[in-house]
């Protein structure tokens, strides 16, 4: 980034809305789809529109001869040397040799890549060899120079100036852009072809469109100078407006002119402000009226040792302050008509929040200086400068941030000493302001001086001095008040609130959207804690009260006023205060009323959902709270058929339900409506309610005249904010802790409490209301005022203020009589024709309403007929479908019955077969059991034989061992004898043969034992197989039908036959007692000899 860009970006004076940056090679984000066809179309439109000259404004600019302009140099000239008079006499710098390449819409106004890409595209159009140039070349256009417009660029020297594109001759303005609408400046990269180009992004604030304008200089080095001039302009934020001629329409006459007989008054309509020409011209012939213009300017500390003028919000016609910044108030008084008066000095500059304030509420500012007429270039001007410390306690409202959509009023007064007037003259300006945080940033470019025209009526006093006349002040009237009273000569109609302020800016537009949510009804926490002393006092009072219910105990009113009824005792005390201690008949009547129908049930059902939605007892649809509230409202609408149910009645009933059952709450509601005359407010078209509005307004006029005048000027009437107060006893909008205390004191003291609480509310918030405008006041009553009384301290202060308000029944009666007189007077003064026309209009409106209702009913009737016809057709179609379904069902039933009969027969047959199978199974199982028993016996016999044979083998082996030992011994004894050797050899041979024979016999026995064991295992397997088959047959008997049953029988029969066949083909097992049993030997044990025991495997 070059040095110029660094200084521009880091400057403290440059607003954050401006940036000057160094170029980089990036791409451009084109609006629309960004494809090549859209780009070509946009560039064609730009090049076509750039050929025509924009709307021109005639000026008296002069420039050097075109022949002196050189294409290779940039002429930088001062306006004073080159222009005899610039547009609006503005200081500016002119740059020659600049070409306008065109503009393009951008989405990101502060995006450097997007701006550089726009420069690249528009610059490439100037190159005939470029593809983009050829694609965007217009038909018949062969000259590249025709695609750029030569201009003279005019850059202002101040931030509130205008950038202008002039023709090369410097006489016609081709285009102009306010400097504060320029958001971004950028130049091409040094090493690129765009180094001789620069661009700035301009904002169309109302439409939200951003356009990037691209320029080219003949000399690339001139681009830096252009951007440097922009930087200087951005930095040059004006500290104060230039000296202007007084906005006067009349030239002042010197006394010397009067003495010479020159009494002609000249007019110059060009100096008259809008709306003041007619007013001033009407006063020219009146020599006793002197015209003055008072200008108000406010400056804030800019943090650099100076003061900057605070901005003026055009949309809401108010000043914009920042918190905790020291301010200066500058008041300039200029005489505009009649004989010149000599203003000696200003001995007081006063400021206070609010309007229509008392003299004692004004706060004197410290005056720095007062500029007398001699120091001013214009005759009849006096300037006063005062210092305003916003941290002072008196200015707390003007140093607190205002909520969105609200403004505060402030009054500035200047007391002047005039030589020709005996007493000081006060000029009072009332204006509005919005207070923002200290770090807020504003646009500083707009009209920031407030002007107000005053008309001073003087009366000449008889004086002994012939050379000097003296006057006394008859009246001082502002042009704002004159316009207001002129627009309402009968004083019966109120002007729009925007007439309450005259300024050089447009009138108020609609305020910002109200984003603050009002306090929901039924919100707030109720303090249930109570000291022992208070409970003791209330306990004594209740004990005395129950002893004598005919009268209230002494000291009850003071207890109620002190802190209200303890929350735990409210249900009981409210019933005693209302006189519901003995009301069994009403309780019985309530039980009968809740079962009756009410014509207003729909309205009641709709209202209960909006009653106390913030309270847990009422927020659930269909809950216990809403059901009880519905029954009470419905019962009252049936009980009091004259009034019925009125909107707002549910809030009072809900407050009662929170402390007692619904039967007792209904009785207390009846007492309040009848004995406390609440139902009178809903009768006769709310006539009694309008009377109370008038009484409240008159009480405000007597007790708070400043607030009454403030409301009157703002066209705020009592019904705009107090209708809910009277109709719902403050239960609709305020928190519960305040609602309950108001009901306490209302039941204790009667309907007069409503006026006292209403006036107490106005007294407690009077200071805040005086600082607000029309919308702000209504929003305060709707949002801020209920939230203020969420704390117990504010509620106690309100009750204390309310009980001290000096309002009694006699005064209200007098107000009521005055209201009747005013009504009668208006009725007598009214023209009969006007009354007839009004009545005719009402009748026509009623007739039109009835016709509209008739049309609606007819349309509803037609719609109902069509709906019924459609429903009838659907019903008939449905009946036909049901008839077909019925026939199908009957047929299915018949088929089912036949199937049931067949199944019953099959079931009987299966039962018989099941019995047969069971009998056969029993027989088979018995046979198998017998076979199993026999085989088990055989197996046990075999086991016995095997054990016996094993024992016998062991015995034979032992005998063989003994015989061998014996033979060995004999051989040892007879070893020498040959005979003995031969005998030993024979014995040994015989012994070997016997051993082999015995071994063979052992092997046969072991083999036979193995075969026997194998047959035993096979028998056990067969037994298990038979048992398994029997269990399978039993299951299949119960689970299968006839076909499966036949298969099972055949399977059993087949297996039985196979078993019989296999049994006949195999040899029976040998009996242990059989003679041919090989395990039984007929040979004696002594005849056997064995040599060695072997095991056959």
UniProtKB/TrEMBL annotation:
Signal peptide: none
CDD domains: PTB_Rab6GAP (cd01211)
Polar residues bias: start-end ranges: 49-62, 75-85, 974-984
Residue ranges of coiled coil: 833-920
Domain (PID) ranges: 163-217
One Gene Ontology MF term: GTPase activator activity
Positions with biased composition (Basic and acidic residues): 986-997
Residue ranges, compositional bias (Acidic residues): 508-517
Region spans: Disordered: 49-87, 484-524, 970-997, 1051-1097
Taxonomy, superkingdom: Eukaryota
Cross-referenced Pfam families: DUF3694, PID, RabGAP-TBC
Keywords tagged on the record: Coiled coil, GTPase activation
InterPro entries: Kinesin-like (IPR022164), PH-like_dom_sf (IPR011993), PTB/PI_dom (IPR006020), Rab-GAP-TBC_dom (IPR000195), Rab-GAP_TBC_sf (IPR035969), Rab_GAP_TBC_domain (IPR050302)
Limits of the Rab-GAP TBC domain: 564-750
Protein name: Rab GTPase-activating protein 1-like
